[in-house]
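Appendix C reproduces, verbatim, an entry submitted by the partner laboratory led by Prof. M.T., so that reviewers can inspect both the input and the predicted structure.
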Amino acid sequence: MASSRIVQDSFLQSVLLASADARQRCMELIDLAERSAVSSSHVLPTDTKLHLSQQQRLLNSDLASLRDASRESIFEVRMTKQSTSEARQEIDRLHLQLQNFYYEERHLRGEISACESYDHQYQQLPLIPVEEFLREKPQHSHDDEKSLMFARINHELAEREALEQQRQGLLKTKQSLIADNKKRKEDLASLDKDLETFIDAAKPIQKLFEKH
């Protein structure tokens, strides 16, 4: 049969075979019924009656098997639909999860690209050149790029802190010198005033000497 070549499931093949047997028995019963109708005026032979009864029992058995197979196939179809629905839901869930992963990947790639192209402030620092730094600090000659950058920034920080300390020291010295100069100016002004007072007080004595 062509259907047996198309249908590969063993259960469905058994159903097809049972259906074919039932059909064949129906055809035989129809043929017997037609022959019985032709010879209705005569009594059927006993063997014909037995054969007809046997075929009816076999047909009833085939039909019962087909009904059982029909119920089982309906149950299998329901189970298949349920499993298919569950599998479809799982596939939809996995597809949504995959889409979320793709979105997160694009987002992270965008963040990485933004970080790589970001104009960091440390890149604008007037750091000491790498060659000069390694001559002064040879212990960093085997550092990777990141560690070497940190070392150069820390070196620049230490240099600026030292310069700031020098600036603060020079500023204190300047303020001290300004204070000393101010005091000296005040002392000189006071001395000038004392001299003027002394000169004014000595004028009568000078006039007295001039008379003599």
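The CA atoms of residues 74 and 80 lie 10 Å apart. Additional entries are available on request from the coordinating office.
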